[in-house]
Amino acid sequence: MVRAKKKRLINLLTSSIVMMTFSTSLLASESKAQSASGDWFKVSYIADNTYMIKEPKSSQYNISYLIIGNQRALMLDTGSGENRSHCKQRISNIVNQLTDKPVTLLLTHFHFDHNASIDEFDHIAFADIEKIRERAVDDKTYIFAPKELAFGTYPEKAIVNEWLDLGKNIDLGNRVVKITQVKGHTDDSVLVVDEGNKIIFMGDTLYNGPLIVTGKHNYAPYIQTIKKMQADFNDTYYFYGAHGNKALGGMMRYSILSGTSDLLECAQKEACDYSEVISEQLGGNELTGTLFIKNELPLIYTEDLH
Ligand SMILES: [Zn+2]
């Protein structure tokens, strides 16, 4: 009895120490997020060794993510670049405050609002997708297309240090992620799956805000992408988008997939609850198209982004 009591006491003490260590590291990570935040970038600690870097003042409420392993960290997107004309805060400085591990930058896709600060990163990895490889000279120098550069001619190019295989484990050190190609928003978009933490980083395939569909041919692959996600994942997963808004932030739950599938299907048929022809400014360019809304989820259809 005495021995059993002693064992229970030791177990209790051990679990208290584990809890204390966990809360101390959680507090340290949260305080790191707070001190890295500034006038433009706001940082949140969203899961173990995972930070969300928001730009609430950017024109589209951009969100980038930093995923940290024991050996290396993966940075998803470079932010909107709009900070550069507003203040001295730079996204690379934020990242340096959050981790001392070597950082690899991965673009979730190649739109202007995700690549503008790419020159602040010295190790760049792109998804090994034929369409992306085609735009890289000698598999090394990626030349940005005019459509990827709404703010003029910057950045002109990037040096690709690494090509990441689709569907294969990317070992960050005691943390493994995988990238998957997803068509719909663009042909060369990827999402990042962190199975261990049940987190899916969605890029612009899904976020809290009006989704963009460019050209009718993109509806079918987009619907297919969302339906595949419905089949592959379930309500134990957390989904994080590359845009958000003040009310909802960047996180979504599984139920958004069925809502998005319904939204895409009604927009494809031009038969949603609500539709309106719109014309608005997007990244310095005029965006004209149709806004569709179904069950409070919005989508903008446009023939061309630029
Ligand atoms: Zn975007």
Automatic annotation (TrEMBL):
One record GO biological process: antibiotic catabolic process
Domain Metallo-beta-lactamase: 61-243
InterPro entries, alphabetized: Metallo-B-lactamas, NDM-1-like, RibonucZ/Hydroxyglut_hydro
Leader sequence residues: 1-28
Keywords, alphabetical: Signal
Keyword Signal applies: yes
The UniProt record lists the keyword Protein transport: no
SUPFAM superfamilies assigned to the protein according to its UniProt record, in alphabetical order: Metallo-hydrolase/oxidoreductase
Highest taxon of source: Bacteria
Family indicated by similarity: Belongs to the metallo-beta-lactamase superfamily. Class-B beta-lactamase family.
Protein name as catalogued: Metallo-beta-lactamase domain-containing protein
Species of origin: Photobacterium kishitanii
